[in-house]
Amino acid sequence: MFGLCSYGASGDVPLGEIVTKKCEGDFLAKLSQAQRKTYHRAIKRCDDVYKNEDGSMYRAMAAGCRVDLAQSYARKFRKGLR
Asked: Rounded to two decimals, what is the model's pTM?
């Protein structure tokens, strides 16, 4: 739904945060300490890719990256894969 509702602008950031938190509810508590560390490093990489870029489009792209990552983790844990 995020992809369908996103605009490629700064408004995607709060929407992305909502979606990310919703997905994290499916898996975050199930992660081991090492898995949690790996997840948070990956989230940081989403932000780092665009940190030197100006413009709301890049904030939206980082938000989309975080959503995609959280969604992929939620899918894995919903299927019981670890």
From this structure: 0.86
Q: Is 79 inside a domain boundary?
A: yes
Q: What is the DSSP letter of 47?
A: H
Quote the number of domains for the chain: 1
In terms of Cα–Cα distance, which of 19, 28, 24, 12 is closest to 62? 12
**Does residue 64 lie within any of the structural domains?**
yes
User: Which residues constitute the domain of residue 72?
Assistant: 32-82
Cα(14)–Cα(34) distance, rounded to whole angstroms? 28
Residue 6 lies in a domain: no
**Rounded Cα distance, 42 and 59, in Å:** 16
The answer to whether position 47 is within a domain reads: yes
pLDDT 10s digit of each residue in the chain, 82 long? 676 566 667 778 888 899 999 999 999 999 999 999 999 999 999 999 999 999 889 999 999 999 999 999 999 988 765 5
